[in-house]
Amino acid sequence: xxxxxxxxxxxxxxxxxxxxxxxxxxxxxxxxxxxxxxxxxxxxxxxxxxxxxxxxxxxxxxxxxxxxxxxxxxxxxxxxxxxxxxxxxxxxxxxxxxxxxxxxxxxxxxxxxxxxxxxxxxxxxxxxxxxxxxxxxxxxxxxxxxxxxxxxxxxxxxxxxxxxxxxxxxxxxxxxxxxxxxxxxxxxxxxxxxxxxxxxxxxxxxxxxxxxxxxxxxxxxxxxxxxxxxxxxxxxxxxxxxxxxxxxxxxxxxxxxxxxxxxxxxxxxxxxxxxxxxxxxxxxxxxxxxxxxxxxxxxxxxxxxxxxxxxxxxxxxxxxxxxxxxxxxxxxxxxxxxxxxxxxxxxxxxxxxxxxxxxxxxxxxxxxxxxxxxxxxxxxxxxxxxxxxxxxxxxxxxxxxxxxxxxxxxxxxxxxxxxxxxxxxxxxxxxxxxxxxxxxxxxxxxxxxxxxxxxxxxxxxxxxxxxxxxxxxxxxxxxxxxxxxxxxxxxxxxxxxxxxxxxxxxxxxxxxxxxxxxxxxxxxxxxxxxxxxxxxxxxxxx
Length: 542
Ligand SMILES: [Zn+2]
Known about the structure:
Bound molecules: zinc ion
Number of strands: 15
Distance between the termini: 78 Å
Number of domains: 1
CATH topology: Alkaline Phosphatase, subunit A
CATH architecture: 3-Layer(aba) Sandwich
Helix content: 25-40%
Strand content: 15-25%
Radius of gyration: 24 Å
């Protein structure tokens, strides 16, 4: 009797599922993050290759823009990898998720996207190729499989031995110690283009698991575009074709170490040299686009493309002296904070194709949007504002906070922007109270508050006079959004700091150093005794 009742219930459930499936099968979700990718270096965002006008930098992403939606005003939460990915995965702004320095992991209290999909019955796969996405920072939570495409310990040892030889040719008297070796290892990890390994791993995970009828959530993180730029190591012909006429001495290798004159802080290279380095950056973008194309092709070959939601985004941009600096994590200007964002919905009667959206979107809006589109209930973390339901009238706040361990000095900035304006602020801690105060930058003499009218000055080159009425409008909006953000953050509880700190080293790093016979130097632990305490902007601040 009991048995037959269970059977009846099971049959009813199957029937209900079949009915649901007939209406709308649960979609697959693919979320792709491309590290360090500027919005304005993609073809569909208007980029043309200066030295190779007949080539296309990003044909696969251009195609995605045609079949989905492309966002012009998508902004990340900061200009470095760890907090922006924490915002991507938790759906929380930086103030709320609290991943503030490299010592932190995602708060165990905060649910992440993969957990929510896993709980709802999705298979979950992740593959990453940059160190901050390591499980020790909490990114593997909720994944059935979460793999690294970074060099393993043996590959890393071989690469280090190779580079040591090159260094010794230049400096035969060099004495190696654990600190130097660890630094060389870090540099070598920057050289790697592991895009192919990322897409290989992703495709293998899908191949092995797509036939059981369950939907999947796939996350991939591509690190190739991050400096250094060495496309010639993957495809020498491609690298050459992106800048066939260059005859100078600059390459994308170690360029960040040499590009700035340490005395004058001015560029050490000429305009043409810089253009060459940027062409190598573009070639890296192309290499990633090619690997993304392989994932798209696999989905299409297996008739899964139409029922798959695809989001492609970057965690931050990259600076090429746009505001006097290079790389990222130093500033919060447009070239670092405005990011590419694509969204292709699963094919439905009313799905959006080919749209260009001007709506303001933060990187933390992506998680709730994916959950909504896939029909998974939102977690209590979420701010209830997915991209699709955001009214687009608010701006996005980003923050940068870099403390040195000894003196509490740092590069402490915040910024706000919407479609029309941006505001950037710079702080210094009061030497006695530690309280953050607005301050002129001691090295660059940059004013403490910079305000731009993006309609007139999209590249943020000429700050408004603070007495300009537009500056007042921008500050009022910043103030309004900071209050809203603070209110949202107050609703999210955080674990005590000790529960949010990551392990110091990855197991690969420890294994690598020990295998070479070097004693492990104690790692400097950042001063985590002061955290985000950015004063709210005042409507009449100046
Ligand atoms: Zn990054």
